[in-house]
Amino acid sequence: MSQSNHDHHPELPFWQKYIFSVDHKVIGIQYGITSLFFLLFGFCLIMLMRWQLAYPEQALPVIGGLFGDARMPGGVMLPEFYNELGAMHGTIMVFLGVVPLAVGAFGNYVVPLQVGAPDMAFPKLNMASYWLYFIGGVIMLFSFFLPGGAASSGWTAYAPLSVIAPIGQTFWLIGMSFLIQSSLLGSVNIIVTIFQLRAKGLTFMRLPFFVWSQLITSFLLLLAFPPLFAASILQLMDRVAGTSFFMPSGLVVSGAPLEVSGGGSVLLWQHLFWFLAHPEVYVLILPALGIVAEVVANNIRKPLWGYKSMVYSIIFLGFMSFIVWAHHMFLTGMGTAISAFFQATTMIISIPSIVVLTALMISLWGGSIRFNTRMLFALAFLPMFGIGGLTGLPLGLAASDIHLHDTYYVIGHFHYVVAPGTIFAMFAGIYHWYPKATGRKMSELLGQLHFWPSFIAMNFIFMPMFIMGLAGVSRRLYDGGAGYAHAQDVLQLNITSSWAAWALGLAQIPFIINFFWSIKNGKKVENDNPWDCTTIEWDTPSPPGHGNFLKEPVVYRGPYEYSVPGAKSDYSPQFVEEIELETPESKTSEQEAV
Amino acid sequence: MEMIPYTVEARKDTGLYNAKLGIWLFLASEVMLFGGLFSSYILLRLGAPVWPHGKDVLNVPLGTFNTMVLISSSVTMVLAWVALKQKNFPKFKATLGLTILCSLLFMVVKGFEYGAKFSHGIFPRENTYYAIYYTLTGLHALHIIGGVVVLAYFWGPGSKMWLTQPERFTNRIEVVGLYWHFVDLVWIFLFPVLYLL
């Protein structure tokens, strides 16, 4: 299908092949590298903030002078700059880091390969999707240099504060609009690719779990982002055209009444925002579950336990995620009836997550586990996501949320889900598919040097936050609670968290070295299926050429047929028609050897 | 030779070609966009102590006329697609041309309505009713403009594809038609909500 075609293609000029490429693999790698850069950048922001939290209003040593008097006079961070860093850390990590890495990079690179497609369904839209994302990112970065700095109203951009904030907020809204359009094009592309370009024989129940997770994720992006776009339009109108969608009557700012018509509703913004942002949480976690399922199945050498129940669970989870959003708003005075509804749906939505997690745990039982780097990351994901998920339950119940709302407990909870959860899964995915994309493996030694310190540091960062939150320390304090009597007993934990955060920064150095060094110097893969996988992306050359497959891919069986009784090898790939059976002779010779 | 399958012919098990599924998904997201805005309208109106009646502040006859214009454009849009199915290219040109004229007429009338408000110094900041009126109709007008650009392309330079890949061109007209009907449908909701209620 492709090799003969491929030969007739003229060699493309550099800018068409690598910059404005329409090939899903190049776009996937572009997404990957850009989003990893943003993850690092967003992490740098929080490392700065952690200094202020651990040592409030002390001069930041060495680099403190670099930020200028407008942000850090004498190396001491101003509250305004702290707010900017906080808002942009959240925005960058979620919208420019994790989601583009999970959906843009892994979705783009792996989904067409796993469904046996020559490319995405709409390659040009795919390219547009990347470049919209890129422009959105540039706008966000640029906003740091505006008068008044970048957006500083939190990643949630709550009105009315965000409406009266400096110009950076306008750029935030415009940047978000680009990111929303980018994700729209990307999600349409992924859904159409999965529905339309599935290889012969690849029925829905033979799809790898990763493809299922991307399918559900794309539906969430497709349907949840537009209300945020609507909200962004309204907020932009409020800021630029002077309307009062989110501005109630009678607002007084700095002692003077605001000159607006009023009559708006601040709750409206929160509803529209969380209507996106709760499904967004599942956008963050579903691709991670997909990657972990792939890596776990491959390294336990046996089928996933309960594949079908996992699939049905995430479909159900996708639906439910649209009717839980107001559990972020228990303290806004919505009324007890509404709170009761949303706390019930929140309890219900925890069930499918637990089903998936339990299925993955049970899968481990009796497996002969290969403890390589990618498996370590995947294994670490399970309890970390477990902690993150279970600590969410008290937040989903209105009564306990009253105490915990907006404290460090919340920060600990969702970071456990996203940081040692999703980001660990992303690392597992990078180590897993790296040989497919480059033809070389990443170093195991550097991988282990990356994993163990990261794993330990992550827990030292976020575990103390639960304790601080239970003690009642609010999450948005510039001094980390130093000015509050009730926080004095737990202030020491800020220092623990901060040093662990900087240690986590150091722990990423082996990864960065590994990532770039292995492109040229990594161990060459011995064949196109170096991990002995069963899914069809391993039936392509490494790296796959334009058009991916050398012959039309045909799928003969389910995705995780490892250790099939009677088969000669311990994996029966989807793409092999006749599985070699164990002969009586080979069995007896083995027994003799034993 | 196109590498990606089902760009023209439908896939058997889904019964769709790629772009048709794509546009339906896009329209689903558009439903959520306008759904979010209509919900905002409801929430704002429920929370407002007074809310002007559309018929007292807007020009209902003009709005009705525009509704008719837009519905007509949807009809001619379907006729354009049917003409291609019947391999009648001149009829396609005529009906698609009519669609474009109708949409331009719609924009002229809308511009006249806006102008009348502006000349009285009524801008979005007046009150939340006008804020949502300008936002909803403005966003809808942007959809119309985007649609007209695409329609004009298919009427002019884009129609060359009819000579080389007639089936694919017909599909394109079907897809843009689906979008056009959606934009029309949004107006059919906007008109009563803003002008009559």
Largest interface: A-B, 46 and 41 residues
The number of helical elements of chain A comes to 18
Helix content of chain B: over 70%
Helix and strand sequence of chain B:
HHHHHHH
Strand content of chain A: under 5%
Known CATH architecture of chain A: Up-down Bundle
Distance between the termini of chain B: 55 Å
Order of helices and strands of chain A: HHHHHHHEEHHHHHHHEHHHEH
Helical percent range of chain A? 55-70%
- The domain count of chain A comes to 1
**What is the total number of structural domains of chain B?**
1
**CATH fold node name of chain A:** Cytochrome C Oxidase, Chain A
Structural class of chain A, by secondary structure, is mainly alpha
Radius of gyration of chain A: 25 Å
The total of beta strands of chain A comes to 4
The CATH topology of chain B comes to Four Helix Bundle (Hemerythrin (Met), subunit A)
Shape of chain A: globular
Structure overview:
The complex is a heterodimer of chains A (594) and B (197). Chain A has 594 residues and is an all-alpha fold. Chain A has one domain: Cytochrome c oxidase-like, subunit I domain (Cytochrome C Oxidase, Chain A), CATH 1.20.210. Chain A has 18 helices and 4 strands. In chain A, the strands form 2 sheets. A two-stranded antiparallel ribbon of chain A has the order 1-2. Chain A has a two-stranded antiparallel sheet with strand order 3-4. In chain A, helix 3 (24-54) runs parallel beside helix 5 and helix 11 packs antiparallel against helix 14. The radius of gyration of chain A is 25 Å and the shape is globular. Chain A starts with a helix and ends with a helix. By secondary structure, chain B is mainly alpha-helical. Chain B has a single domain, classed as Four Helix Bundle (Hemerythrin (Met), subunit A) (Up-down Bundle), CATH 1.20.120.80. Helices cover 78% and strands 0% of the residues of chain B. Chain B is built from 7 helices and no strands. Chain B is elongated, with a radius of gyration of 19 Å. The model of chain B has no long low-confidence stretch (mean pLDDT 95). Chain A binds chain B through residues 1-2, 5, 117-119, 121-123, 184, 187-189, 191-192, 195-197, 222-227, 229-231, 233-234, 237, 241-245, 260-261, 263-265, 267-268, 271-272, 275, 547, and chain B through 1, 3-6, 11, 14, 16-19, 21-22, 25-26, 28-30, 32-37, 39-40, 43-44, 47-48, 123-128, 131-132, 134-135, 139.
